[in-house]
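[Meeting: bench + compute handoff]

Bench side (C.D.) handed over the final construct sequence. Compute side (W.E.) agreed to return the predicted structure before the next meeting so the bench team could plan truncations. Sequence as handed over:
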Amino acid sequence: MTIRKLSSHFILLPNGKVKQWPIVECDNMGTILNISYHPGDLKEKQGLEFHSGIMIPGLIDIAYTNEAVIIDDRLLNRHFSFGTLVFGLPKPEAFHRQGLPLISNNSTAAKSPYNFLERNKESISVPLFKRIVDSQAIPLKELGKSIEWSASHTEYSTMLGSLEKGKTPGILILKQYDTERQLVMNESTVQWLVKPELKFIR
């Protein structure tokens, strides 16, 4: 089994908590094996991958829309490139998707308490991360809680939504955010560090 060791300046944890100098260990399926913290004394270890920014879980775009929308592989690939791990559709069985993002049934999803998660016929083509940065100055704590809320409305709730031992949430690195006020800004970007193994989640 191959184990990856990832580190960054910060990590976004459950309930929107932020901690500094983490090391996250993952197996080759993307499952988190361990998370440890090394404030002030993070030392270079063999095989350690350091990334500037804050590690966050994969995004979940599950907000419900009952409007007719046209979704194709190219559009879903764009959503995934901006950090979306799960994409909700009213009739996912009608869309045969082999790769990421995962397609989830959102026909019973409750109304989101987070405005930036909402979408309609026009905005459904806009990746969730773009909608987040367009909302301007979203607190990291609110971002973290919104990902957990979204995960709770999918069939993958026990595997996704937060960076915790035993979960397979996918890991993104968020860059160019306001570190002092802990805000996602207009110039913020995300990049995949760990893409979970699809067959393992299912």
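W.E. noted at the follow-up: The radius of gyration is 16 Å. C.D. will use this when planning the next construct.
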